[in-house]
Automatic annotation (TrEMBL):
This is ARF GTPase-activating protein GIT1 C-terminal domain-containing protein. It comes from the Eukaryota. The lineage of its organism: Eukaryota, Fungi, Fungi incertae sedis, Mucoromycota, Mortierellomycotina. Pfam families: GIT1_C (PF12205). One of its GO terms (molecular function) is MAP-kinase scaffold activity. Residues 2-122 form the ARF GTPase-activating protein GIT1 C-terminal domain.
Amino acid sequence: IYLETQTGLIVSSIQTLLTSLRSSSDSRDISDASDEITKIVDEVIRTTRLTLTSLCSTSGRGEMVLEDLENSLDLLNEMREQLETEPELAHSSSAEAKMVKQKLASASFDIAKYTKELVSLIDE
């Protein structure tokens, strides 16, 4: 139930992020949404690692999913940091701005995918 609840929070935060990206919101709005995703996902990773150690049958696959989740979170944070250092990208339609926004969206979708995969593993 914990992971399912957290997945709902992650999905909601991702929707906020995607809305901010689509509407060319202020870079602060994008950063805030990214920060919220990071906070929730960091907690999910910590809690799941503790749980996986007691579930030997899924710990190998679970650890791989957690690593994928961490990598996606790292990419999300890297793009957020770029938007913070170059806030004009939030309103720009340049190729660089599109690339940053696309990577942010892609990382957020991957986060949702890997979180749902964790739920499936734990429910097995």
